[in-house]
Design a protein that fits this description.
The chain is α+β, with helices and mostly antiparallel strands. The protein has a single domain, classed as Roll (Ubiquitin-like (UB roll)), CATH 3.10.20.30. The protein is built from 3 helices and 5 strands. The protein has a 5-stranded mixed β-sheet. Strand 3 and strand 4 form a beta hairpin. The longest helix has 11 residues.
């Protein structure tokens, strides 16, 4: 089981700021979130690979998955995954 912290639109879509999901890697975690919480799908994923929208920020223990192994980043029980929407500004 992995702790998933959700922020902004992801939190609104799921209705919780944190969920516990069984997953061996990020790909499985995203697929589990999509199947369990339908409202999160348009904010998190697209129909082609890579599965996750490029500008979505996903951290495992504070490190971006894009600096680890991307969607194949392995997860351990004590890991904390944080999911943020794109950050905009000007």
């Amino acid at each position: 089981m992995v702790t998933v912290r959700l922020f902004a639109v992801f939190r609104d879509a799921v209705g919780k700021k944190q969920v516990i999901i069984p997953a061996k890697d990020i790909r499985e975690l995203v697929e589990s979130l999509n199947s369990k919480y339908e409202k999160i799908v348009p904010f998190l994923t697209k129909t082609t690979d890579p599965l996750v929208l490029e500008d979505t920020i996903i951290l495992v223990n504070g490190r971006s998955i894009w600096f680890l192994d991307g969607l194949e980043t392995k997860l351990k029980e004590e890991d904390v995954v944080s999911i943020f929407p794109p950050i905009g500004g000007g």
